[in-house]
Amino acid sequence: MPKRNPASETQRNFFAGIARAPQLILSLRERPENDAASVNAHGRFQLLDKLWPGTEDAQNHERETLLAFSPNANANVEMADTDEPLVHVHVDWSCVRYAWIGARPSTLIGTDKEVVLCRDQDKDSRIFWFNLRHWEDLPDMDRWPRETWIDLNAPQEKSA
After folding, report:
1. Three-class SS of 101-151
2. Alpha-carbon span 18 to 22, nearest angstrom
3. What total of structural domains would you count in the chain?
4. Residue 128 near residue 28, CB atoms below 8 Å
């Protein structure tokens, strides 16, 4: 399981636009060099902070930010009886350093746009990514540049 480092303010601000998209395809794969397994999830995604029971000290990494799934824009995140999202991804947000928004070759499911979250400024270092069909599905992402690397470690500029 990844370390339980919560998302930074910059990562949260970046993800706020992704969370508004009504239909994305989240993609994960085991390891690029192995490619023995992969996961695709079609729906809506949001960040959800979780403080695990019996822990009081966030410095001990018992607080994490989950990537939670809901099937569509009209559905809330369904919770399991363990008080965590029924479908979610554990992410070590300290590893998610860069993002890329841009065009990609068309996939088997007809998507030709992507949002890639990476360790380095190299798509081979991707941790997870979203495929989509229409830029209109990302209405609040216009402030983030396309076809260039976005530094998710950089502090956010305050708007005047």
Report:
1. EEECCCCCCCCCEEEEEECCCCHHHEEEEEEECCHHHCCCCCCCCCCCEEE
2. 9
3. 1
4. yes
CATH number at residue 51: 3.40.1570
Classify residue 4: in a domain, yes or no.
Answer: no
pTM reported for the whole predicted model:
0.83
Return the percent helix, strand and coil in the chain, to nearest 5.
10, 35, 55
For Cα atoms 1, 151, 149, give the angle at the middle one, nearest 5 degrees.
Answer: 105
Q: What would the pLDDT profile of 41-100 be if each residue is shown by its tens digit?
A: 999 999 999 887 665 554 554 788 999 998 876 778 888 998 889 999 999 999 999 999
Q: In this structure, is residue 140 part of a structural domain?
A: yes
Q: Give the separation between CA 7 and CA 96, rounded to whole angstroms.
A: 9
